[in-house]
Amino acid sequence: MVYVAKPVQDFGSYRRYIEDSFPRVLDDCGDLGARARSARRAERIRTTIDLPHRMLRSSGGGWALVGDAGFVMDPISAQGISQAFLGAEYLTETIGSAWKSQESLDAGLAAYERVRNARAEPIFDFTTGLAALTRAAGGACG
């Protein structure tokens, strides 16, 4: 899979000429353009401009959210699934701890949300900055 990101203001012209635009971008990445042209495409090229960044409340009266249900990041940092697994692990620990100590599940879930936010905010902020595609975020083929 190859992921290409472009600034929002360039999206219209990039998408309109996708069959030419996509390989040209890859040409800036060593031999990736040539390799992509010689490969068999498994799917059509997909594009979207709708990549929300949001953190939602992750728990309430007897319910909890993990992964994209609780917070969504642009895929540019490839951290979504890792964050989902970390959230699921911590939620499992929280529920188990609440049952063992006979602590209120709601109190445990409130603690889960505080810890989830503290753990997720740095990668969320990093990803949001990286998705802005500023020069400071890095090179074209990083």
Quick tags:
two-stranded antiparallel ribbon, FAD/NAD(P)-binding domain, mainly alpha
Structure description:
- With 142 residues, the chain is mostly helical.
- It contains 5 helices and 4 strands.
- A hairpin with a 2-residue loop joins β2 and β3 (63-64).
- The longest helix has 27 residues, at 105-131.
- The protein is elongated, with a radius of gyration of 20 Å.
- The two termini are 15 Å apart.
Compact summary:
The protein is mainly alpha-helical and 142 residues long. Strands 1-4 form a two-stranded antiparallel sheet. It has a two-stranded antiparallel sheet with strand order 2-3. It is 51% helix and 6% strand.
Order of helices and strands: HHHEEEEHH
Q: For this structure, what is the CATH homologous superfamily of the largest domain?
A: FAD/NAD(P)-binding domain
**Helix share, percent:** 40-55%
CATH topology of the largest domain: FAD/NAD(P)-binding domain
Q: Over the alpha carbons, how many angstroms does the gyration radius reach?
A: 20 Å
Secondary structure tally: strands: 4
3D shape: elongated
N- and C-termini, Cα separation: 15 Å
Structural class: mainly alpha
How are the strands ordered across the major sheet? Answer: 1-4
Mean pLDDT: 85
* Main beta-sheet annotation: 2 strands, antiparallel
CATH class of the largest domain reads Alpha Beta
Q: Which parts are unreliable, with pLDDT below 50 for 5 consecutive residues or more?
A: none
Number of folding domains?
Answer: 2
Count of alpha/pi helices: 5
CATH 2nd-level architecture of the largest domain: 3-Layer(bba) Sandwich
Strand content: 5-15%
